[in-house]
Specification:
Helix content is about 30%, strand content about 30%. The protein has about 80 residues and is an alpha+beta fold. The chain has one domain: 2-Layer Sandwich (Mth169, Chain: A). A 3-stranded antiparallel β-sheet has the order 2-1-3, with helices on one face.
Amino acid sequence: MLAKVYVTLKNGVLDPQGEAIRHALGSLGFDGVNGVRQGKVIELDLADGTTEAQINDMCERLLANTVIESYRIEIA
């Protein structure tokens, strides 16, 4: 079973890497980019029978810093 975890900074948390990307895009001539929020995607190759609750626990305990990040799970 494949699960993807999308981790992004919560709204209101400064994103200096996203701001650097936005600035670089402007420097390359891509006008109209008003904001960029960057994050990460974690792909998990899991044994059959792994529950979404277990994946949630993985996120809460290791994969996301829930103080400043939110996450979304997609199971394929």
